[in-house]
Design brief:
The chain is built from five helices and no strands. The chain has helices at residues 3-12, 30-47, 49-68, 72-102, 108-143.
């Protein structure tokens, strides 16, 4: 096998794997897929207390942004930033679930996986706080007369 063929084979090998052969839980039905996604979101709201805190903070931040009448670009940036934090939290919970299944007992690498996933949430939350201060701080100070 030539070097070029090996490289092409390596690059396309994943694309040749049919997920239906390995994933009995996947659904070709888009409505059913949406249901799975909503079930995951409801799971997060029910069992992950941070998502309840995030819900309140998200509504609060967006409410303040609307009250301050920030421009559409600032509002879009806030929405994307908030979504990034939610996504990090959802992925963190998914990593934790998979690690718990794969390693029910303590394992140092399981700890690494969980800690790194949690760090991604922390990073997203810190970035969101900074974005919030930068976008909402000046109009809030103006509104308060400072």
């Amino acid at each position: 096998m030539t070097r070029t063929k090996k490289v092409l084979d390596a690059l396309t090998s994943t694309a040749r794997i049919n997920p239906d052969d390995y994933s009995p839980g996947s659904s070709p039905n888009r409505i059913e897929s949406l249901g799975f996604a909503l079930a995951g979101w409801l799971y997060m709201l029910r069992y992950q207390k941070n998502t309840r805190i995030m819900s309140v903070m998200s509504i609060l931040v967006l409410g303040v942004a609307l009250w301050l009448q920030v421009n559409l670009l600032s509002l879009a940036i806030l929405i994307l930033t908030i979504t990034g934090v939610w996504m990090a939290e959802f992925l963190n919970a998914a990593v934790e679930a998979v690690v718990n299944l794969a390693s029910p007992g303590y394992h140092p690498m399981a700890k690494v996986a969980k800690d790194v996933a949690a760090a991604s949430v922390l990073l997203a939350a810190l970035a969101a706080a900074l974005v919030g201060v930068l976008l909402l701080g000046p109009p809030l100070l103006l509104r308060l007369g400072w």
